[in-house]
Design a protein that fits this description.
This protein is of the alpha+beta class and 737 residues long. The protein is built from 25 helices and 28 strands. It is 35% helix and 23% strand. Helix 8 runs parallel beside helix 10 and helix 18 packs parallel to helix 21.
Amino acid sequence: MTSSALKPVAEPAITPELIADHGLKPDEYQRILDLLGREPSFTELGIFSAMWNEHCSYKSSKKWLRTLPTKAPWVIQGPGENAGVIDIGEGLAAVFKMESHNHPSFIEPYQGAATGVGGILRDVFTMGARPVAALNALRFGDPEHPKTRRIVRGVVSGIGGYGNAFGVPTVGGETNFHPAYDGNPLVNAMAVGLARTDGIFYAKASGVGRPIVYLGAKTGRDGVGGATMASAEFGEDVEEKRPTVQVGDPFTEKRLLEACLELMATGAVVAIQDMGAAGLTCSAVEMGDKGDLGVRLDLDKVPTREAHMTAYEMMLSESQERMLMALHPELEDVARAIFEKWDLDFAIVGETIAEDRFLILHGNEVKADLPLKALSGSAPEYDRPWSETPAAEPLGPVEAPMGSMEALRKLLGSPDLCSRRWIWEQYDHQVMADSVQLPGGDAAVVRVHGTNRGLAMTVDVTPRYCKANPRRGGAQAVAETWRNLTAVGAKPLAITDNLNFGNPEKPEVMGQFVACVQGIGQACEALDYPVVSGNVSLYNETDGAAILPTPAIGGVGVIEDLAQMTTLALKQADRVLVLVGPNGCWLGQTLYLREILGREAGDAPPVDLLAEKRAGDFVRRSIQGGLVAACHDLSDGGLAVAAAEMALAGGLGADLDAPPQGSEPHRWFFGEDQGRYLIETEAPEALLQAADRAGVAARIVGRTGGEALVLAGESAPLEELREIREGWLPAYMRGEA
């Protein structure tokens, strides 16, 4: 079916209410009037609304995103394309990005999460890469909230349902709970792909008269206005927004992947762009804008699956599994044959033109005639007022209300530290047969197919740190992904980010954003770890209540020889445990403070970026030199939780020494000081001597062996700790916790 089955539809009058419904402020609408010299049509209003919302234009964040370091000798493509691209050697590139699908996942958890996965996979294969892994960062509300369990179940099912059917392994991620996400869960999806360095495809159209080709699935009414909805707060009318959520079909996307990669190999593609946020509008404008060309579209030729679709609906639909391509005209028949073979729509719907125009025709009428470059280049850009987050009150004395082992039991059974097995066992993490390190470790590792090299990847952020001290929190998120990759033996190369915040029109929220970005930039600069792609998700608020500032960071690195990869699992009895980095003492904003004492207080832990760099480089050299049998970075829960996770992963006990003289046990075992690793080694003297030469703090803190974990004489059998850690989430999802 095409849009030729058109019935005349009267377009609504442009009123102040209609303008507001499209997320445009009065001064923004005046800017449109000044650009056009006339009132826009209804379709034109929708196009401006789509292109000028936060989700597409980054109008509140551009100023600060420009400050981030994005270049390095190994960076092939930084921010601005569908995904970032880095050179990983031997003629190969890693292509990756992370994006949010927060608002849709609250309204319709399954489809919101599923189409988030589908969208990020398209961002990667649009660049000419075959996706090899998917990850996610999930934030849910208070487990006691009446909606949380349903949202968890829907989101996890949606991620698994799409990724498993598409055939990409979901290999890593993180999941946390906090009341700040009660009305606004976060679903951040990341994908990583592999391509030849000489086979990267871009969205920049070139040449006048190039056919504009519509590829993939048919257009429907699902997702109309989705990008605009994602750029606004939620209120009492949230359920009315359900029609703005897209519906995904992973089997169609799999065919689209294969067809696109086959087509790219023919040399027919001039430019290609995923139809993601704002659908046909955004993809066509970006393609023309990057090529300094205009675009003419004839909507009568757009394949549709619903009758009587209007120009407005077709231009703003976010139906999934669609691409837009500029084609070498002499290879049109070759391209068409490939898509017909894969049973996908292939329709020439327009052409590139020399004039700076975005010309939309439908039913023999001009529905939009706009200056194309103004749609992106003239979008509002705000330097919003912002205020510094007040310094945290000093934490003061912190008493220990229970013994260390009792506290560890409680922490391991808490929502934020319990096992995520219930989640990741619903994902196919071994499809494609190249997953080398599976979920549950510091970073996932996927083999570069046919080689002994590996891609390591991780996602991390600690929102409670970001709320207490946004600048430290932003830096810490980057540093922790650096440690995650280092702990498996990988060299960290670059990051993607997903910056999730509340309403930027509130100075305190904008201040959180600014400071987090500054912290991220400082860490990336110090660690030589540039930002190559990312996404900003603002207005994550419901009824005026904002989420915690959550700048999720996705890191990617390379292991040159998988024989040198490490895991966190303890390997053998009678070996020494060495703590690399400072001794523990920091309790501000820790999980110990929150879960044991019921307090969210104090400052976030300091982040010494020079020390992070020294420690990470030292640990990586030690792994490559054969001095490390197992390695785990210390984060939530500190030393005791890290030791427990290593012991449970390896099925081997450990005995941690008493704290050094002058250290309190609860600070020593549960402090969340940064820049630390716990290492199992059979060559402690060599490791300690190497640490001393590198200027890195290191000390022996225990030994491996037995069937229990011992904290300074307090003992618990591993099987008891395993039952505690594995039990909470399944019981909660059964309604028993």
